[in-house]
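FAQ
Q: What does a multi-component entry look like?
A: The components come first, one per line:
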Amino acid sequence: MITGKNYIGNLLASTGKVKFKTFNPQENKENDVVFSEASEAEIEVAVALASEAFKVFRNISGAKKSEFLNQIANEIEDLGDELIKTYCLESGLPEGRAVGERGRTIFQLRTFANLVKEGSWVEATIDTADPNRQPIPKVDIRKMLIPIGPVVVFGASNFPLAYSTAGGDTASALASGCPVIVKSHPMHAGTGELVASAIINAAEKTGMPNGVFSNLNSSGIEVGMKLVKHPEVKAVGFTGSVGGGRALYDLASKRLEPIPVFAEMGSVNPVIILPEAAKNKGNEWAKTYAGSITMGSGQFCTNPGLILGIKGADLSNFIQKLSEEIVKIEPTCMLHPNIIGAFESKKVNMQKQKGLQTAASFSDEINTNFGRQTITTVEGATFLKNTTLHQEVFGPFSMVVQCENAQQLEEIISNLEGQLTGTVLAEKEELEKYSTIVNALQNRVGRIIFNGVPTGVEVCAAMVHGGPYPASTDSRFTAVGINSIKRWVRPFSFQSWPNEMLPDELKNENPLKISRVIDGMRIDN
Amino acid sequence: MITGKNYIGNLLASTGKVKFKTFNPQENKENDVVFSEASEAEIEVAVALASEAFKVFRNISGAKKSEFLNQIANEIEDLGDELIKTYCLESGLPEGRAVGERGRTIFQLRTFANLVKEGSWVEATIDTADPNRQPIPKVDIRKMLIPIGPVVVFGASNFPLAYSTAGGDTASALASGCPVIVKSHPMHAGTGELVASAIINAAEKTGMPNGVFSNLNSSGIEVGMKLVKHPEVKAVGFTGSVGGGRALYDLASKRLEPIPVFAEMGSVNPVIILPEAAKNKGNEWAKTYAGSITMGSGQFCTNPGLILGIKGADLSNFIQKLSEEIVKIEPTCMLHPNIIGAFESKKVNMQKQKGLQTAASFSDEINTNFGRQTITTVEGATFLKNTTLHQEVFGPFSMVVQCENAQQLEEIISNLEGQLTGTVLAEKEELEKYSTIVNALQNRVGRIIFNGVPTGVEVCAAMVHGGPYPASTDSRFTAVGINSIKRWVRPFSFQSWPNEMLPDELKNENPLKISRVIDGMRIDN
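Then the predicted structure of the entire assembly, as tokens:
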């Protein structure tokens, strides 16, 4: 049952005065439950509990953390239909998506459970002593990764499960040994509370310290700002708009003790369609891309919002086919009236820009809150001059830029802001022929794709979901995949420490049988 | 020969109007050479060259980068006596230190040369495709670390070689594939120019692109500020004061595109002397610490500036012995009148603080610019209340805090700012007995030492030189050791990329024979 309260550690509380409801965009009406925004006192208690819990949690074994994470996955499974129904009521997304996203969430939790149970992720590195070294003896130094402290995670509007309460940020932070305080996303506070209850149940069943997790409701920006400014908070994870992510980054960097903010923000995910690909497979790609652009109403951070090609009959044909294909697709419900409102106003603003032409726009009668997919097109020179055209329109929208020639295409790529992904649609030989363009693209993105679509972010070790600013606030990390745990840890050295007092990861006898680097040699067990 | 000019890429230039000289603190007079501060135009050209050079340099093989780094080491060796003499004239440090630091610098360069020649440092990770996976096929994704772009390195006052022009920051950045622009330290501009000439010679001999390295002179903060604000600069390395490092961090975080600043800043490097150690080995530790506190006139970031023990006869004896030992040591020359000026004024300010007592202070007649070593002592309660007492006095100064009991000691440790190191002097059993204190210390530092001194930072894979703010601006990285290369790189994914077009590190056939993780299994070659 959804109470509308906050989880302050293991306790439900609702002492705050600010109340709010979530919204059902399919039916265009408010949902029933009244949520209570976390009060200042509740925030203080949640952070204090997290700080105390950290003292215990940071030393808990990988095996115990693994039990905790797996139990969270079990508890989420046990939420059954209530979770799926609440998710749909609060997001307007279809049941299939809810089930799929729940699967991804559970997979992420179990993946991190396996990672910390196995244990090698701590990068244990041992340099043994050499008492006979000249001119001075060499001391014994042993290093491993340790957690940095309480982490604040901001729920994402577009992933009520996989990038919210128990999503990738929370799973990776808990796996690392950091307590987590979730600033729940107001659009799906009920989904958030259900998942939070699963985490709290799991924490209690597996003996985790009270405060290892809290879930704070919020209707606006106040709760998040207070959390980011709190001296006991040591890092922040965020998925959302450039404006929101940058505001948090700015707050965090102005603190007396600045803290890392990993914000995964906007991206137009440029797609380059090279001449031979446009000629040989233009129709095929047009159909594929009509699907990618409208998938989830375009509400993915990897949505292809920008397609670049070299002017000519083949590109014109591609634009025409894409335009035909995209209006064949039935519009779908967007997440919230605010989201569709922003989509429409940004789209209209784009359409007002000089030189931008609308190639296709769904114009039939549709349901309220459903997103009308739109394809626009512009000349390369116009695009270069007007950076408004470089901005993201979050939703089912894409712009095709018709470049004069390869040189202009390269210039445009070099002038783009940082992006999560870049895609090249090409015949293999074209990768070589247009290598400077491909190189320029590589320098602007976190992931580069050959003959595919950017949507669909595989959860795997080799995934990078991040990229140069403003795709993320720190391109040195990824938000998806097991390496996302690196955001919440720091290296730590023990010098001349007695073997029996070292953490198991660094003991001579390697009781955890993890892979380590000893005196420069990797030793697997 | 030292020209006083800037290296703007491979060319010497001195179009700027601001001129300055370095200072010989041993003889208390200016040195002869006139240096020309980099002009605005020179800064622009250096950054533009670095940006262009990056396009080539970032794709250069590890083997070629290794040649470049080894050649830098060769060229520095070839500078011979002129380098050592210039170093001594500009720093007041003895010849032995100059030779030792040159050795460290060369060792660092060759260590990074070996690292990139071997090649496994890029963390190549491959997740192969699974076309049969349900519900959707799995794509092929391959990840490696790639350089982020031009890096600005600030020379450090206290390490004219090992943490300046071709020091750890430069060596690690060049190894990663990032061009480097050094903002030379004004106190040792001549040493800097000589080392810069070695780098430029090496770059030319090994065919590196012009702009891979520049060396800019500066007499104040202007040149550094311009560099950090420049849109084409992508990261910053700094070693120095908290004030200086924080100012650069603030500049970088306010940019339109914020960039990472790794600043290794102040630290008092707390040392805890536990009761049994004070009782059984107090005299021995007193002698050892007198040496550590005065080593290099206390001008090390790991200088032990704070010693904490539990009040009693044994601690009193330790203080007395430390006081006796420290005044037996002859004072040595400090780096510059400004450094000794800051040392004296901060020391005097400390001595003015209520409750602080001076236990020992060298008072004989000494040479101008030599540092008078000083030991002070204070009660735990007084220390807790007055955070001025927590600040660093850069130089041969240390404060012994006499705590009421173990509880107060733990409280003090928990309230300390972040530190590079923490040391525990103890009998082994005491580590267990005082585990909460040791845990609290671990949470405040980057490296913890058992029965040793914090001075002496081994260059090895297991070293962490960094720590919670203000020890560094980002505790997730180290400034010393091979992992310091991680500061300048970002992970990058290739999705469904044709094998023949992948970088060698990620090709199926593993031509570089590096260690990789493939489908979750580490495969060594």
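Q: Is there any commentary attached?
A: Sometimes. For this entry: The radius of gyration of chain A is 25 Å.
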